[in-house]
Amino acid sequence: MTARVWFAVFLCCAPWAVAAETLPVTLEEACTLAYQTHPQLKAARLQVEALDEDYNKALSGFRPTVKVFGDKGYVDEKVDKRFGDDNKGDRVDARDPYTLGVAHKQPLYRGGKTLAEMDLALAQIAVGRENLRHQTQQVLLDTIKAYVGVVTAQEIVTFHREYQHILEENVTITEARFQADDVTMTDVALSKSRAARARTALRQAERTLAAHRADFMAMVGTLPGLLRDFPKSPKTPKTLAAATERALGKNPLLQAAYRTIEAKDADVDRISSGYRPELSVESQIYRQEDPSFDDQRREGAETKVVLTIPLYDGGMVSAWTRQAKKDRQRASYQKDSVYRDVIRDVTLAWRDLETATLDLETTALEVTSALKASEGMQEELDMGFRSTLDFLDAEQDLLGAQRRFTATKAQKLVAEYTLLAAMGALDIRTISKKTKPYNPKDHFERVKGLSYGWWQE
């Protein structure tokens, strides 16, 4: 049994492999945990749910307002009668006046302001949902990168451990051959030098693995188990044109830019309503009592139609309207900028995927050839046809080829998911069919129309 086979058996039986089942070991498990527990996503979802209440606030413009008003006081008054017509002297008056009533106001027409506020609220809610979708994509993509980073680092550590094991064996063999006068002290020194370098490289690889495990914990909330091999590649478009078309219709940042323009249009309408008249019905029922010496008491009810026509406000509404129109133009230019960025991101991700796909073929061939060269070099070294340096160089070439092949697999997988994110097609359902996705519309439908009571949520 070769050294490589012994080393594979050791890895499978290692103590840390036993505890791996209690920790996330697949990409699906890691992304599901991040999707359900990442604090950034939880905060973003609450932010969207808070935006839902803007719609209820806008609806309140159609509804009446009812309020109770009243006051109660105490009056201690002295009335000086010395200068009056009668001659009865001074009078001391102490009384408890009060007022109590109910007022009602029903808006009939607000110049179109309520409808504009509703459109504004719906547009802002749509912007919030698209931003949430973008944040979800970013968390999932970062989790995928963390997962792939750990898998890559694990494989590289495995390669380095195997490489060190072979070089340590080579030191033992070279020293024995030196004792038999088969090689020189130079061969021994060269073997020890490469073995020492291999130990240093292994420690650096293990440090890199620890860093990737820390990145994994930051995204998922727990350390990974012994992660399995690279997951299967997701489905991606066959052409760049198809990917770009999908991105222009689904990218969350671009969709948020479109919804922002709608919000700015609604804001212009809302502010412009300040030029228009308002009509409402106001009514009240009241009772007022002032128990002084003449015992005054008033009770009554009144209803009136109130019409307010703005004539001149010092230019305030005009300034607000001009400012809102400028904001709308600025949002349009920002949308154009995002449009270009989306095309750029899709193109770069596509090119990265193409490059990684081609590199994967060449690095796979490199590993196969380097492995054959290493095995042949070992046999030729045993027969005395090759020097120790030739053998060490062949092993180092094999290690480099294995590292490049593993890194290329990681680059290809990350490029695929990056392309999906640029297209707006990366969500939890892309990775896990078992995980129930969060739907912000559920909360909106639950609170839409609630008109009283904060506890109803």
Structure in words:
The protein is an alpha+beta fold. It has one domain: Outer membrane efflux proteins (OEP). The protein is built from 11 helices and 6 strands. It has helices at 3-12, 27-37, 39-59, 113-179, 185-220, 240-250, 252-272, 316-382, 388-423, 428-431, 440-447; strands at residues 65-72, 75-79, 91-95, 98-109, 278-290, 296-308. It has a 4-stranded antiparallel sheet with strand order 1-4-5-6, with no helix packed on it. The protein has a two-stranded antiparallel sheet with strand order 2-3. A hairpin with a 5-residue loop joins strand 5 (278-290) and strand 6 (296-308). Helix 1 (3-12) packs across helix 4 (113-179), helix 4 (113-179) packs antiparallel against helix 5 and helix 4 (113-179) runs antiparallel to helix 9. The longest helix has 67 residues, at 113-179. The two termini are 67 Å apart. The relative contact order is 0.14. Mean pLDDT is 88; it is low at 1-21.
Features:
single chain, 457 residues, alpha+beta, Outer membrane efflux proteins (OEP), four-stranded antiparallel β-sheet, two-stranded antiparallel ribbon, 11 helices, 12% strand, elongated, disordered N terminus
Summary of the model, kept short:
The protein is 64% helix and 12% strand. It contains eleven helices and six strands. A hairpin with a 5-residue loop joins β5 (278-290) and β6 (296-308).
Low-confidence stretches: 1-21
Q: Which fold name fills CATH's third level, the topology?
A: Outer membrane efflux proteins (OEP)
CATH C-level label: Mainly Alpha
Q: What is the correct CATH architecture?
A: Up-down Bundle
Percent of residues in beta strands:
5-15%
H and E string: HHHEEEEHHHHEEHHHH
Task: Give the neighbour order of strands across the main sheet.
Answer: 1-4-5-6
Radius of gyration: 39 Å
CATH superfamily: Outer membrane efflux proteins (OEP)
Global morphology: elongated
Average residue-wise pLDDT: 88
Distance between the termini: 67 Å
How many beta-strand elements? 6
Total of domains: 1
Q: Tell me about the biggest sheet?
A: 4 strands, antiparallel
Query: Strand pairing plus helix content: what structural class?
Result: alpha+beta
How many helical elements? 11
Q: Tell me the helix content.
A: 55-70%
